[in-house]
Design goal:
single chain, eight-stranded parallel β-barrel, 13 helices, 8 strands, binds 1,3-dihydroxyacetonephosphate, isomerase, TrioseP_Isoase_bac/euk, EC 5.3.1.1, TIM_sf
Length: 258
């Protein structure tokens, strides 16, 4: 039996302003019980402009919901207009930060080298990176989904020491399944997630690989989460669209009841 606590994280993407963020987190907090938090870790990855509001709410009401950002700068400070540093996120008591989401790779040309620098910056500031990896449709159709994804894992973790790597979260998000309603078959997702764990064992050790949480992301909903979570190497979900609906996200968190 795996001792990994499932992590259900909502990636809000560029949705919900700071007022809407408060209402949404309050709704989640109202629905979730200690039983939920005992079974699953719950996190929301929110726009930068929402972080202070979410922090105030979580601190003030002692909520057990974790929160974090969707990106960070690879740099610590300086002349990087528009960027947000890991130090700034950690000052806001963020727990998590997504790194290398496919939308960052696609629209902001983030390479594995950039993702690697961001993973290191996150660790340096005490944040847990959620390293996002996954193939485009052409790559899957060419039969290269596993090889492509493992290259991203290896690139993202280059020169990251074991004591940091053992706390990373990896999110396998096949690009063609994101926001499309096309969920990756649970067995196909398991195949890639098992290969990711195998790569971690090769890069570090089996013991380390067994500790790392690997999420699946891509059109996860209340109706398909149970099948995904039944896979041996899938330890949670990174949820986009469905996390914007508090009732649906609660269903995902309660995947055992679905
Ligand atoms: O990109 C995702 C989460 O990071 C997945 O998005 P959807 O759940 O909307 O497909």
């Amino acid at each position: 039996m795996s001792t990994r606590t499932p992590l259900m994280a909502g990636n809000w993407k560029m949705n919900l302003n700071h007022l809407e963020a408060i209402a949404h987190v309050q709704k989640l907090a109202f629905a979730l019980t200690d039983k939920d938090y005992d079974a699953v870790e719950v996190a929301v990855l929110v726009p930068f402009t929402d972080l202070r509001s979410v922090q105030t709410l979580v601190d003030g009401d002692k909520l057990k919901i974790k929160y974090g950002a969707q990106d960070l700068s690879a740099h610590d400070s300086g002349a990087y207009t528009g960027e947000i540093s890991g130090a700034m996120l950690s000052k806001l008591k963020c727990s998590y930060v997504a790194v290398g989401h496919s939308e960052r790779r696609q629209y902001h040309a983030e390479t594995d080298e950039v993702c690697n620098a961001k993973v290191k910056a996150a660790f340096q500031h005490g944040l847990t990176p959620i390293l996002c990896v996954g193939e485009e449709l052409e790559v899957r159709e060419a039969g290269n989904a596993v090889a492509h994804t493992l290259t991203q894992v290896e690139g993202g973790l280059k020169d990251v020491p074991a004591e940091q790597a053992e706390t990373i979260v990896i999110a396998y998000e096949p690009v063609w399944a994101i926001g499309t309603g096309k969920v990756c078959g649970a067995e196909d997702a398991q195949e890639v997630c098992a290969a990711i764990r195998g790569k971690l064992a090769e890069l570090y050790s089996q013991e380390l690989a067994d500790k790392v949480r690997i999420q699946y992301g891509g059109s996860v909903k209340g109706g398909n989460v149970a099948e995904i979570m039944a896979q041996a190497d899938i330890d949670g979900a990174l949820v986009g669209g469905a996390s914007l609906d508090a009732d649906e996200f609660v269903k995902i968190i309660r995947f055992r009841d679905q």
